[in-house]
Structures are given as C-alpha cells and as structure tokens.
Design goal:
The protein has 330 residues and is an all-beta fold. The protein has strands at residues 2-4, 7-12, 15-20, 33-34, 47-52, 58-65, 72-79, 86-91, 108-111, 126-128, 135-140, 143-150, 155-156, 159-166, 186-195, 209-216, 224-229, 232-236, 242-246, 251-260, 268-273, 276-283, 289-290, 293-294, 297-305, 313-317, 321-323.
C-alpha cells in the first residue's frame, strides 16, 4: 500500500481497484465583527458580516474490468463544485448629533427719533444747559437732528456743558439692578454724528472734550466716554484710553458701540465707525464701584468740556438707538 498525496490505491490480484478519497476542506474561520469608535466618542455604526460556506460533496465511482490481457481501468469521477459563499451584511445608519447654540438676544430697546418733535425732552429725560437755545432740533440734509452749540462760560452742575441724558431710573435711589441698563447686561448703541469742518481742537491734548458719556449715578468721572483729543477720536474714561482714529470733519459719520456693563475687567467695549471696526472687543471696566457697590449708569450726549476752552463748539447728533445686538442699531 502506497500513500501519494490524497489518493490511496489498492491492487488485488489481477484486477485493479482504485479508490479516490477527497480530503474535507478546512473549516471556514468565523466571521469577524469589527467595532469602530469615532473620534468624538459617539457610537460608530455597527457592521456585522456573516459568511456561510457550503461543504462540497465529492462522489467517485469506479468500474473494474477483468481481462486475460493487460488490465484496463476506467475511472469516472464526479465532483460537485462548491457554491459561491453567501455574505449577509447588515449596516446601521450612522447617528449624527447636532448641537445648536441659542442665538444672542436681540431687540431694539430705545430710540430718540426727532421727526415731528419740538423738544428733545420728548425723548430724552433731562437736559443740562445754561440757556434754552444751547440744544435745538433742526432740519437739514440729514433729516431732523439735535444741534448742540456751547460758548465759553456756560457752567452747569460744575462743568462747561450742554447735554441731554436718559436711561435714568426714577426715583434716583432705585436699586442699581432695577435700572434700565443694569450691571451684567450688554447694550449696543448706534447714532450719527457731525463734526463741523471748522471744529477747533487742542494741539497739546491737555484740554479735554467729551461728547458721549456712560455716566455713573454716584461716581465722578465716567468709566467710559467718547472724547476728541488733538485730532483723534478716543474711547476714554476713568479706566483706560483707546484710540479710535482721526476725527472726520465736515461729514456725517455712523458710530456703533457695544458695551458689556461691569465694574471689573469682565466689562468690554467694541467700536465701529461707518461699518469698519475701529476697536475690537477690549476688556476694561465699564462702570465703577461706589461704596463697595457697582454704580448704575445712564447715557449722556452733547458737549461736556474743560472750562479752559475759550472758543464756541458745535456738533450735530442724529437719533440714538439702543439694542441688545449690533444688528439692532446698525
């Protein structure tokens, strides 16, 4: 008996009997299951593959013929070919999680429109001026606006001023958290301003000139205020001073300012001039502490300047808008 490969041949007498024995194929390895973990720790889709392999059948028939001459062997082999493996794949749809940030609050809170009015006190709560003609509503190419004209010597409440103000709680001793623009709130202010071509500036920068203030109820110098110094526009005040670029003479200009009201460096200001950012968001106190408490603020606009000025100044102001977002006051 001889083994050759996978066939075993047995010879008996004069006849030859051949038997073919096919080896069984190796068992197919189990289907693999692959699990993936996504980068953001969300469950990845699960893919399961199952493969079924049919075991082939091999049928061998042998016919033996006996003869006095040389033996003749006829071998007939019938083999069934294995069928193609069947694969079943099940894929779950990936899960997508979308996080949406709530939009910032928006809305117009206040506007000092002047059309059809006869006095600024119809929209602004109070005036500070030495004479009735210092603050007027006039018509011009830019519509109905507020004109402020201040000669030397007009001293009101300890300063050379002609101003209007609003957003002031009444009575005055109302707790700060009940004021219209309390500490911790964010407000956006938008208005147009006109600086005449013959506007006189101080070349030394020592004689101050303010035209918009965020004034504290109890404090002295405001934490933030718009000033003209030499030929420049500045965001000034008690806490810091930021340059906003040169003044624009003889033309109307749109100014938009964002303010987060806070007596610490969590407060911030952001300024745009004619749609161009003049000051990126800058952190600084935007109100002060008085007797250990944040000082509630209100808005003032007009001219407030050093008593050292010996010339008459004038400026014009369009309506002021106050809102919760920049888009509310553009």
């Amino acid at each position: 008996m001889r083994r050759s490969g996978r066939i075993i041949a047995i010879v008996t007498g004069l006849g030859l009997s051949v038997t073919l024995v096919a080896c069984n194929p190796r068992a197919t390895s189990p289907a693999r299951i692959v699990e993936a973990v996504a980068h953001d720790s969300e469950p990845a889709p699960t893919v399961t593959s199952t493969t079924k392999v049919r075991r082939p059948r091999v049928t061998t028939s042998t016919t033996s013929t006996t003869s006095t001459t040389a033996p003749t062997t006829t071998v007939t082999s019938t083999t069934t070919t294995p069928s193609t493996p069947e694969t079943t794949s099940t894929t779950s749809a990936p899960t997508t999680t979308t996080t949406t940030t709530a939009p910032a609050p928006s809305g117009l809170l206040w506007r000092s429109g002047y059309d059809g009015l006869t006095s600024v006190t119809q929209v602004w709560q109070y005036e500070q001026e030495a004479a009735a003609d210092r603050i007027q509503l006039v018509d011009g190419a830019h519509g109905r606006v507020m004109r402020v004209q201040l000669p030397p010597g007009d001293v009101v409440s300890g300063g050379n001023r002609a101003e209007v103000y609003a957003r002031h709680a009444s009575p005055r001793d109302t707790p700060g958290e009940l004021w219209p623009d309390p500490v911790g709130s964010t407000r956006w202010y938008g208005f147009d301003v006109f600086v005449p071509a013959d506007f006189v500036t101080d070349s030394t920068g020592l004689v101050w000139f303010s035209f918009t203030q965020w004034k504290g109820r109890d404090g002295g110098q405001p934490a933030i205020a718009l000033e003209i110094k030499r030929e420049r526009l500045e965001m000034a005040g008690a806490s810091a001073r930021n340059d906003l670029g040169p003044i624009k003479r003889g033309q109307w200009e749109r100014i938009v300012i964002g303010v987060h009201i806070d007596p610490t460096t969590s407060g911030w200001v952001e300024v745009y001039r004619d749609g161009v950012q003049a000051l990126p968001r800058t952190y600084r106190p935007t109100t002060t502490y008085v007797n250990g408490l944040p000082d509630p603020i209100y808005l003032k606009q007009g001219i407030y300047r050093s008593s050292q000025w010996t010339v008459t100044h004038s400026m014009e102001f369009g309506p002021v808008s106050i809102g919760l977002s920049k888009d509310d006051v553009l």
